[in-house]
């Protein structure tokens, strides 16, 4: 074993790069399993039924869905594609929750056909669409209504989701509109209204944000109960649990955030005289982000007047977050782990965009062409937001566990990218 070469769960990055090529998404499967197990064990209460939903938008493939199933978590999906993946993986459909602000009629029909357990209603037009479908359905379905509690977690403006003008959900200030939607849903005998859903943002480092969210929601639920006679059995508090990217990040310990949520729910339920008996959360990023890394091979280097660039064989096509959110990452030269970091460099991708910067102004050892560079904490929203920009194929995804490597998503070839190209005349 060469201690200068990074190993992931017993496999060196040199072996991974030689066998599976680069760029490569690499997941330490033991870390995923550990997070799934911890959520399942820690989010338990003697006062409530509890349910943990994995937010599959963070990273979805059949192998990941199978792990979620193994550890007894439920699943949050936001599209027909994520729903189909769950169905193909044999996930229990009654434990699937279907989210989204603009579900198509076809997607809603698909959810009903597959036997999805719960649909999270986002708006009045979607409410009408589901009622129309369920009038002719021979099955039943549970629903929840997404509301905005007016709590803005301190995150990037593009990932704050609960302010009054958010594209998601309905403000809790719109009480009559919410009541009308619930009455519309419950007028259909095969639709059950379970309660309210909320999500206040991503990368939340302050547990008081959840305290505020629960307080606002329970006060709102009290009004709905007293004014409209609407009671709830369930409360879904969304996700937003943070992951560690750089030394500036200080995620709330999982045990602390779970305890804070459950204790606050108990206190607010009693204070407001509410009857809900089930509490749900939806972690995604915090389950997979730190388990995943992206492995690149360094190509050319360039010195400008003010910067030294290291170019890698991927870029914004496999990690759009730095360009989209100004997200920051840590990295290393993975085959020079013990060498002194003497150079300040900027790691840039090969895409034809000036904004294709992966890590800016980072100290690394002196790099050589064909060295391997690893960027940490790319397990969430790397693969799931990847694109074919510049006709770059999406990297393969591997799970590594105790020296065993599994390819769970194949590398996309040029032929794969062109497989859907056609020249067909259609009658219009």
From TrEMBL:
One of its GO terms (biological process) is lysine biosynthetic process via diaminopimelate. InterPro entries: Ala_racemase/Decarboxylase_C (IPR009006), DAP_deCOOHase_LysA (IPR002986), De-COase2_C (IPR022643), De-COase2_N (IPR022644), De-COase2_pyr-phos_BS (IPR022653), Orn/DAP/Arg_de-COase (IPR000183), PLP-binding_barrel (IPR029066). The active site is at 352 (proton donor). It holds the Pfam family Orn_Arg_deC_N. Its EC number is 4.1.1.20. Pathway: Amino-acid biosynthesis; L-lysine biosynthesis via DAP pathway; L-lysine from DL-2,6-diaminopimelate: step 1/1. One of its GO terms (molecular function) is diaminopimelate decarboxylase activity. Keywords: Amino-acid biosynthesis, Decarboxylase, Lyase, Lysine biosynthesis, Pyridoxal phosphate. Residues 31-289 form the Orn/DAP/Arg decarboxylase 2 N-terminal domain. Specifically catalyzes the decarboxylation of meso-diaminopimelate (meso-DAP) to L-lysine. Belongs to the Orn/Lys/Arg decarboxylase class-II family. LysA subfamily. Homodimer. This is Diaminopimelate decarboxylase. It comes from [Eubacterium] hominis. The gene is lysA.
């Amino acid at each position: 074993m060469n201690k200068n070469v990074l190993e992931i769960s017993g496999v060196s990055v040199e072996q991974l790069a030689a066998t599976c090529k680069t760029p490569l998404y690499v997941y330490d499967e033991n870390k995923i399993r550990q997070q799934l197990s911890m959520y399942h064990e820690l989010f338990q209460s003697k006062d409530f039924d509890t349910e943990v939903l994995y937010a599959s938008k963070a990273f979805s493939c059949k192998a990941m869905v199978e792990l979620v199933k193994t550890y007894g978590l439920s699943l949050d999906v936001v599209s027909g594609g994520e729903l189909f993946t769950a169905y193909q993986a044999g996930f229990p459909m009654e434990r699937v929750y279907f989210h989204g602000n603009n579900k198509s009629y076809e997607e809603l029909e698909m959810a009903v056909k597959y036997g999805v357990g719960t649909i999270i209603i986002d708006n009045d037009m979607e409410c009408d669409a589901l009622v129309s479908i369920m009038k002719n359905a021979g099955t039943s379905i549970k629903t929840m209504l997404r509301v905005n509690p007016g709590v803005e977690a301190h995150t990037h403006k593009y990932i704050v989701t609960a302010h009054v003008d958010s594209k998601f959900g309905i403000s809790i200030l719109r009480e009559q509109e919410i009541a009308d939607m619930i009455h519309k849903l419950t007028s259909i005998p095969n639709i059950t209204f379970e309660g309210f859903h909320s999500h206040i943002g991503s990368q939340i480092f302050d547990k008081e944000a959840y305290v505020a969210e629960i307080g606002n929601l329970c006060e709102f639920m009290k009004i709905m109960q007293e004014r409209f006679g609407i009671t709830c059995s369930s409360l879904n508090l969304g996700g937003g649990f943070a992951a560690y990217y750089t030394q500036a990040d200080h995620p709330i310990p999982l045990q602390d955030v779970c305890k804070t949520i459950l204790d606050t729910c108990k206190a607010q339920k009693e204070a407001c005289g509410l009857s809900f008996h089930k509490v749900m959360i939806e972690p995604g990023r915090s389950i997979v982000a730190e388990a995943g890394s992206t492995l690149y091979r360094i190509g050319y280097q360039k010195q400008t007047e003010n910067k030294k660039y290291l170019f890698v064989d991927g870029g914004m096509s496999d990690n759009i977050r730095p360009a989209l959110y100004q997200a920051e990452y840590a990295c290393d030269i993975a085959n020079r782990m013990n060498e002194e970091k003497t150079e300040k460099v900027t790691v840039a991708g090969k895409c034809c965009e000036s904004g294709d910067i992966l890590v800016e102004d980072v100290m690394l050892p002196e790099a050589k062409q064909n060295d391997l560079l690893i960027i940490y904490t790319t397990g969430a929203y790397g693969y799931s937001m990847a694109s074919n920009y510049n006709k770059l194929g999406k990297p393969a995804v591997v799970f590594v566990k105790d020296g065993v490597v599994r390819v769970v998503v194949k590398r996309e070839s040029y032929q794969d990218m062109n497989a859907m190209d056609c020249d067909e005349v259609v009658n219009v």
